[in-house]
Amino acid sequence: MELTHEEEEILNGRRGEKLAKVLEVIVKVGEGLEAERLVNVTHAHISGISYKNIGDAGLEFIEKLASSNLRVSIPATVNPAGMDIKKWKEMGVKQDFAEKQLRILGSLRKLGFKMLLTCTPYLYEKIPPGSQVAWAESNAVLYANSILDLYTNREGGPLALLEAIVGKAPLYGYRLEENRRPGLVIDFSDIKRTIKERELYQAIGYYVGTIAKFKVPLIKNYPPSLLQSDNVKLFLAAVGASGSVALVRFHGEEKNLERYRPSIDDIYSALPADFSDEGTILMGCPHLSAHEIQWLANIVKRWGKPKRRVIIFTARVLENSVHKEIAALSRAGIEVYFDTCMVVADLKSMGVDKPLVDSAKAAYYLSSQGYDVRLFSRKDILRVFYGDHV
After folding, report:
1. Domain end: 159, 177, 195, which one?
2. What is the CATH number of the domain that holds 108?
3. In this structure, how many other beta carbons lie within 10 angstroms of the beta carbon of residue 106?
4. How many CA atoms lie within 13 A of 73 on its CB side?
5. Which residues does 3 contact at the CB level (< 8 Å), separation at least 6?
6. Which listed residue, 38, 235, 241, 329, has the most CB atoms within 10 A of its CB?
7. What would the pLDDT profile of 302-347 be if each residue is shown by its tens digit?
8. What is the pLDDT of residue 137?
9. Residue 166 and residue 189 in one domain
């Protein structure tokens, strides 16, 4: 790998042995991926900070880093933790789990990470288009590449952490223009109207991921409503769950590309769970936006308390800006949690055994955790909240 003079100095220990080891790991990863050089990154977002996921080994790794003099060199944020850091007792979290989760967060804070604790950093961090970033959360990576015109691969959580410290990443994959070109076309002409009428944005996202795999998909003849912020968030999260691609194109050259034109049966058969209305309603994968919380508050204001248990997850950064709406939801019996999400929290300790989710991403990951998951579309929100009589 070709290194700059600055990078050679770091590797040679001129800026400390520990920073040299951090860069050495990044260089070895880059060499394994046949990257020709490194690139400066301007922002990092790390995943894998829930104690549920990383356990004692992850805790030890992060605490060891924090005990050094290493600190992040660029703005850096973190994904959801395994609990709401203020209401963890209400979630049924055990004392030992809570203490270890707080130790993880304390170490990350010491390293200089911003405790955003959300999977939607793109809603809160302002990064100029064209920037190279190091993001590890799959839905955020897809949003960054597809919507914000940022450049990032689907970095692993530990790698993104190290890249945040040194401010550099291997230049390969989606960081290069030649790898961002479409590799196949998915044409929704036959079901465009149905997608909009049934609000199947998460469903078509999951289908896109299963078909695309590692190829960049070019989406054609989709309803314009797909690109509305809340819809495209669900869509891209589903793409990231079912496939390994990190970019979706909504326009581009389509000559000589393999082409798919799915039917509605193709879409439904690809889903990781059936559409149904059984179970505890869970929303917030990805985290609910301010607009979505306001939308739910308006539903509750009009229709009253839901007929079944509802739990939502969002970012604590919204706690003040939509506090009236959150208070209204809480008065209606809806449980609101910050800092965590349904995928990295322990739902069983919360008394949830049959999750009913509006996210294909959540359905995929919760199914893999052994839960009996059901899906509903945003179109069916009133029915699942209040019953068929509405």
Report:
1. 177
2. 3.30.499.10
3. 14
4. 19
5. 11, 27, 37, 38
6. 235
7. 999 999 999 999 999 999 999 999 999 999 999 999 999 999 999 9
8. 96
9. no
Alpha helices (runs of H) in the chain, residue ranges in sequence order: 5-11, 17-32, 51-67, 95-111, 138-146, 157-166, 192-198, 201-212, 229-242, 264-270, 290-303, 323-331, 360-368, 381-386
Query: Are the beta carbons of 370 and 79 closer than 8 angstroms?
Result: no
Cis check: omega of the bond before 224, within 30 degrees of 0: no
pLDDT at 260: 97
Hey, what amino acid is at 218? L
Low-confidence ranges of the chain (pLDDT < 70): 389-390
Distance CA 138, CA 122 (A): 12
Structurally, how many domains does the chain consist of? 3
pLDDT for res 351: 96
- Beta strands 134-135 and 44-46 are parallel
Distance of CA 153 to the CA centre of its chain: 13
Rounded Cα distance between 144 and 121, Å, is 9
Rounded distance between C-alpha atoms, residue 68 and residue 169, angstroms: 21
Distances (CA, A) of 29 to 25, 177, 335: 6, 20, 42
Co-location of 14 and 70 in the same domain: yes
For residue 275, being part of any structural domain is answered with no
Q: How many CB atoms neighbour CB 13 within 10 A?
A: 12
Say if residues 52 and 82 touch (Cβ distance below 8 Å): yes
Q: What is the DSSP letter of 343?
A: T
Contact yes or no for 66/60 (Cβ under 8 A): no
pLDDT at 276: 84
- Which range marks the domain in which residue 297 is found? 280-386
pLDDT confidence of residue 390: 67
